[in-house]
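Students often ask why inverse folding is considered easier than folding. One informal answer: many sequences map to the same fold, so there is more than one right answer. In these notes we will look at a single instance of the problem. The structure comes first.
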């Protein structure tokens, strides 16, 4: 009978303050998912600077063949859209606490998916490659940032033992395009047609600007509009995503000064609460701009934030059919050309496209 075995590949491996760690995947059983745990300790109070800011790229490679590639924010968002649960983000600014973030590289529909999982034996030299820099969030190492020498890495493989068959394919998820938004016009993104698609994710982030202000519409065009699988106003898309994936819950422990703007990590907040600790006199939630404003009479005042909404990490995600029904996934190889058109209305947003394809072994 098939069963799950969790195997540590790295267990809180101590890291330098910046670098690239290559982790060989020396496993013969199919892997349902890889749990990636990263952490770093605050050196004093550390505001608006999180593990997902400083662990900047996660890749699964086999030589020059890139099987997965995302930054940690994209990986956390894809974790949510695949599992409908927000991964542990470590949103804790309090002094000397350790910020942990756990997120999964997901290869199949669930843990016991015998058809879709990563089979390391089908590759010559599969490796996980993690890139980080404790200053990447814009804060120097030391007091007010992350503590020098505090970064750690954990990797756990969730393996399928005694599976009745080897998996025929796995979910290959990676960023395929990035750009800075313009004040107007469409950004055409040429999309790959080599494998079927399961999900498409678009991200855009600019401080104090709503994501639906940077990109107002998304359209997918096949063979010069011979077939248009979707065309959405992005503000509307934020709302209907709740039907597909459920509401996103974000909880944070802040250190606030007067008139501080704090991130909510949601493109659209339906509800929110700021727990007013001693010295906190008020708060204002910006529904569309991924932030909350706090009024306080003190300095470095503790506060808690809880928010519900959509657009986790300022992303839109579009599933193709039922995510659990392969026959409903988008058959991209049936078309000669596919373009994603992103209609822009505000310059300066950092935008990217992440695609989840179904790659055969």
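Output (designed amino acids):
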């Amino acid at each position: 009978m098939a069963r799950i075995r969790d195997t540590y590949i790295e267990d809180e491996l101590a890291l330098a303050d910046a670098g690239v760690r290559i982790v060989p995947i020396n496993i013969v059983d199919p892997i349902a998912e890889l749990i990636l745990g990263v952490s770093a300790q605050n050196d004093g109070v550390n505001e608006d600077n999180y593990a997902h800011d400083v662990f900047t790229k996660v890749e699964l490679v086999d030589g020059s063949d890139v099987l997965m590639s995302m930054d940690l924010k994209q990986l956390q968002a894809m974790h949510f859209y695949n599992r409908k649960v927000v991964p542990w983000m470590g949103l804790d600014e309090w002094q000397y606490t350790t910020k942990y973030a756990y997120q999964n590289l997901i290869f199949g529909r669930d843990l016991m998916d015998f058809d879709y999982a990563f089979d390391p034996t089908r590759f010559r030299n599969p490796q996980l490659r993690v890139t980080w820099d404790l200053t990447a969030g814009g804060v120097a190492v030391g007091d007010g940032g992350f503590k020098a020498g505090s970064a750690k890495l954990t990797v756990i493989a969730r393996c399928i033992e005694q599976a009745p068959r080897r998996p025929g394919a796995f979910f290959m998820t990676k960023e395929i395009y990035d750009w800075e938004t313009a004040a107007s016009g469409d950004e055409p993104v040429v999309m790959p047609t080599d494998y079927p698609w399961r999900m498409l994710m678009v991200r855009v982030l600019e401080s104090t600007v709503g994501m639906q202000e940077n990109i107002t519409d998304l359209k997918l065009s096949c063979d010069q509009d011979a077939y248009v699988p979707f065309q959405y106003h992005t503000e509307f898309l934020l709302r209907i995503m709740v039907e597909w994936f459920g509401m996103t819950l974000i909880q944070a422990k802040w250190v606030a000064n007067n008139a501080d703007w704090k991130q909510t990590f949601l493109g659209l907040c339906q509800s929110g609460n700021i727990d007013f600790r001693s010295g906190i006199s008020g708060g204002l939630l910006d529904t569309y701009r991924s932030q909350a404003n706090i009024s306080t009479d003190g300095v470095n005042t503790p506060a808690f934030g809880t928010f519900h909404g959509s657009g986790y990490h300022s992303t839109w995600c579009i599933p193709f059919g039922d995510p659990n029904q392969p026959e409903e996934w988008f058959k991209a190889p049936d078309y000669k050309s596919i373009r994603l058109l992103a209609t822009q209305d505000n310059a300066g947003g950092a935008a990217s496209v992440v695609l989840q394809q179904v790659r055969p072994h």
